[in-house]
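Annual report, structural modelling task.

Input specification for the pyridoxal-5'-phosphate complex:
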Amino acid sequence: MKTSKSFYEKAKGLMPGGVNSPVRAFEPYPFFTDHAEGSRLFDVDGNAYIDYCMAYGPLLLGHAPSEIVEAVRRQLGKGTMYGTPTEAEVELAELLVEVVPCVEMVRVVNSGTEATMHALRVARGCTGKDKIVKFEGCYHGAHDYVLVQAGSGATAFGAPTSLGVPKDSAKNTLVVPFNNLGALEEVVEKNQGEIAAVLMEPVVGNAGVILPRNGYLQAVRRLTEKNGIILIFDEVITGFRLALGGAQEYFQITPDMVTLGKIMGGGFPMAAFGGKKELMQLVSPVGKVYQAGTLSGNPISVVAGLTMLNILREKKTLIYSQLERQGDALRKGLSDLAEDRKVPVQVNGLASMFQVFFTPQPVFDYKAAQSSDKAKFQRYHRKLMERGVFIPPSQFETCFLSTAHSEEDVAETLEAADAAFQSLR
Ligand SMILES: Cc1ncc(COP(=O)(O)O)c(C=O)c1O
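The model returned the following structure:
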C-alpha cells in the first residue's frame, strides 16, 4: 500500500480528508484505485479486490460493461455537450415512464441531491405548505432541508446534522423513526394541514440496510393519501435495483413522486425526479416551480444510462432472479458463518443489497442500527480488505452485488468473511 499511502499524504493537504466525498475516507488511509473491471477494483499498488461497494450503487452490471463503454465512445465522437435537446433524452423519458410505475412525466438532473431538492420544491409548490417529513437514518443528499438526522456519511462521521444548515430550513423538516407508524400518525396529526410531503427511502440503504416491516409502506401510502400529503419515494438506491421499476414495483405501492439516480446514469452522473403529470406540469418552463441545470440530460450520461436501462429491460427476468439468488446465498452464508464462529450479527438485506450489523438485536430502525459495534465493523472491514474483498468502509452503508459477481466471487467472499468472523471472537 506504499503508493496509496503516498497519494493520501499528498491528497490530505489538498482536499478535506484527502477525498471528494466523505464516505471514501477510512483509517488509516483509503487505497487509491488504478482501474476496475467486472466485479473487481485494482489499486495503485497492484492489489485486486472483489468489490461490493460498487461506487455506492450505480454499477448494477459491474465495472465498465462493454456495451456502455462502447455506446459512450460512439457518443464522444459526436460531441459531449450540446445545450439543446436530443432524441436520446426523449427515448430515456419514454423508458422511465414505461418502467417506473409512478412516473408519468420526468425531469433529468445530475445527482440524487438535486433530485430530492427539486422534488421537495414541487411538493411545496403544489401544496403551498412548507413542512416535510423524513425518517431517522434516511439520507437524501447533502442539501439543507434533508441534512437532519441523515444516515450514511453524516452518521459515520458523528455529525447527524451539519454545521451551516440554517435553523430556519431545518425547522420545517420533521423527523420520525422508520417502521413506526404511530410516530408518523402523531406528527401528521400535530401538523395537520401544514405538511407538503413525506420523503422516504422505501428500503433504507443509508443506515446499513433496513427493510420496511410487512404492511408499513402500505400504511404510509394510506395515511399520506388521506391527509393530502405528497408521498415521495427516494429510489436513488432502490430504483432499477430491487426490480426494473424499483421498490414501488417490488412492493406494489405507487407513490406520487419518485427520485432516481445511481444505476440510472450507467456509471455517469445522472438522476431524475418524476411523478404524476399534474405535479410535474408545475416545473419550469411550463410551471412556476423553477428548476434548471447546464449539465442536465447531457448526451454522454443519457447514452450511458439509456444503454444500462435497455439492457436491464431486455434481460430483466434473468438479471433480477440471478441477483436475488446470489444475494440470498451471500446473506445466508454470512449469517451461518457468523453463527458458527459465535459472533452475534444481523444480516439485513434483500435482492442485491446486504449489510452485516454487529449486534444481537434485530435492526428495524436507525436506533437499532446504532447499537451495532462499530469498532468490530471496522475490524471486519479491514480483515476483508486484507483478503481481497472491499465493502463500503462504514457500518451505515449498503453492500451491493452486481451481475458481474460470479458464484466463485461469492464463495471467495464467504471464505474471507469466515476468517474475518474468526478473528473477531
Ligand atoms: C437514497 C439516496 N438519496 C439521495 C442520495 C444523494 O445522491 P447523490 O450522492 O447523487 O447526490 C443518495 C446518495 O447516496 C441516496 O442514497
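The first strand starts at residue 33 and ends at 37.
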